[in-house]
Amino acid sequence: MKRRYCALVVSLLANIFLYTSAAAQSSPQPSLSPGDALARAVENEAKLKSAEGDFSYHVEIRVRTFGEAGSVTGQLHRVSEMTYDDLGNRTEKILEYPPSRLSLLIGTLKPDFKSLVGVDPFFLTADQLPLYTIRFVERQKIDELNTYAFDVEPIEQKWPAKRKEQGEFPFKGRIWIDDQDFQIVKMEGRATTTKKDSQRFPKFEHYRENVDGRHWLPSFVYAKDVLDMPRFDLPIEIQIKYTGYRHRQARR
Fold it and tell me: Were 79 and a residue from 95, 99, 243, 245 both cysteine, which residue would form a disulfide, CB within 3.0 to 4.6 Å?
């Protein structure tokens, strides 16, 4: 009888231990305050910008302009691979790039994220933070991700003119930061310009993907807008797709 009682006690204690362990594992991690989540994301932006250079991947760019009744007046299609040469130096290999007059119209012979939408894909680094007013909006679910949504607005009088000369303009819009890795997973807005600026940029959406379990890097950019050019309006559509991320170490 005594042995049976001891066995029941041991079994009961084991079940309690397993239940509490499972409950501890399934319980959500305590969430950070919006301010702390933003600080973590800003810290991660510089790391992501550096880590991007350790990956090879394909970039496909499509740009179309439109005329009356939605007719296509111009097209640009460019496919390239960001990779490494035999010495391990970072290089871009052009895979497809038919001639297009749009490359002159949009003001660049080598279109990329920054030249097409006016913003660095990793724009919210610590050195940029003082140039913006950032306001927490709400907690929001995007697909399977729980995120913090923030509105971002540039402080125009603090924005260095030199950066505009280098093709980088202030971003105005909204960003979403996931609550697990504390990285920006989505941006929506536009690069802001003034009448003095010769360039115009569309409102865009930018999504990132987790490429290796740690790094959220650019995945898809989409924009469809009408650019208020100095002498005419230009309906335009832009798509940029990033695929085939592969870490440099995985190539060895």
Answer: 95
